[in-house]
């Protein structure tokens, strides 16, 4: 039978590179660490670690076991914390992840819905890849994510992926821009423009723009970059360039800004709610209903 102490020993050796240092970190004796590693070896019929003059490292089997060990230990620690908190408060905690540009617009409604359903929300903000990793490892119970072409997420069985809304991506420009509020604009009409991009070329919105621009026969000229859409909007208002911005990240007041509608390109992405199998049905319903209601109101 799997023992949490076996998993703690494996994680400690992976982190510290020797049985001796792992024992010190765990405040166990060295023979105790070795005993639990051997128990895991017998259970899996494969050596978990190998040692030489440079220390102790995981074998391929140990490395394959490590992410599962970390997920189980994280979940075990969470279970103890959450049940203790529920006993004290009478309310169950639920951890929810969200990508940054959606936080301001989606979170208030989500938090209210969870509170009304009797849950205590614990919010984590992160980009797409860390969010998916967090929900797969059960560090969060649910995550609000978006689709990203070319980055297919593989989730374990029984995880639910629920489409909740579509988000439009808008081209913003200074209010005095020559194409602002004009009809019949083609994306190719923006071929000579400077653009304000995300933090890196790998940014999903930048990748969407690059694909559409390539189809229109040009490559966007990136003049400035920022990972903060408020800063992107400020750059655009200062006439540093135009930008493609997600609807949820648009400033509430477009002072000094205008949108450019292009008739030959559709920019949008789908937003999903991903939930772990352990999520309470009442919490899942509150999350799903609040996100869909927000889409109808926007």
From TrEMBL:
Limits of the HTH lysR-type domain: 2-59
Keywords: Activator, DNA-binding, Transcription, Transcription regulation
Keyword Phosphoprotein attributed: no
GO MF, any single term: DNA binding
Coiled-coil zones: none
SUPFAM superfamilies xref list: Periplasmic binding protein-like II, Winged helix' DNA-binding domain
Cellular component, GO annotation: protein-DNA complex
InterPro entries per UniProt: LysR_HTH_N (IPR000847), LysR_subst-bd (IPR005119), WH-like_DNA-bd_sf (IPR036388), WH_DNA-bd_sf (IPR036390)
One Pfam family from the record: HTH_1
Gene3D superfamilies membership: Periplasmic binding protein-like II, Winged helix-like DNA-binding domain superfamily/Winged helix DNA-binding domain
Family: Belongs to the LysR transcriptional regulatory family.
Identification of the protein by name: LysR family transcriptional regulator
Organism annotation: Gordonia asplenii
């Amino acid at each position: 039978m799997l023992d949490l102490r076996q998993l703690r020993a494996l994680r400690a050796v992976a982190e510290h590179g020797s049985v001796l240092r792992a024992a010190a970190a765990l405040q166990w004796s060295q023979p105790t660490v070795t005993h639990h590693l051997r128990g895991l070896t017998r259970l899996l019929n494969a050596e978990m670690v190998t040692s030489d003059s440079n220390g102790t490292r995981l074998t391929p089997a140990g490395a394959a076991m490590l992410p599962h060990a970390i997920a189980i230990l994280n979940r075990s620690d969470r279970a103890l914390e959450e049940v203790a908190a529920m006993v004290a408060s009478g309310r169950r905690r639920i951890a929810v992840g969200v990508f940054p540009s959606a936080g301001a617009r989606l979170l208030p409604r989500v938090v209210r819905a969870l509170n009304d359903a009797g849950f205590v929300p614990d919010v984590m903000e992160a980009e797409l890849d860390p969010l998916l990793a967090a929900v797969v490892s059960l560090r969060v119970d649910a995550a609000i994510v978006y689709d990203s072409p070319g980055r297919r997420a593989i989730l374990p069985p029984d995880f639910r992926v629920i489409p909740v809304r579509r988000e439009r991506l808008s081209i913003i420009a200074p209010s005095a821009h020559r194409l602002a509020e004009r009809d019949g604009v083609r994306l190719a009409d923006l071929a000579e423009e400077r653009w304000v991009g995300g933090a890196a070329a790998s940014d999903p919105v930048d990748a969407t723009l690059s694909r559409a621009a390539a189809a229109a026969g040009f490559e966007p000229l990136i003049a400035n970059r920022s990972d903060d859409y408020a800063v992107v909007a400020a750059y655009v208002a200062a006439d540093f360039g135009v930008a493609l911005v997600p609807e949820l990240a648009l400033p509430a007041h477009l002072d000094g800004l205008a949108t450019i509608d292009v008739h030959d390109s559709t920019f949008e992405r789908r937003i999903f709610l991903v939930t772990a199998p352990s999520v309470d049905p009442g919490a899942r319903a509150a999350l799903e209903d609040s996100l869909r209601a927000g889409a109808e109101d926007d």
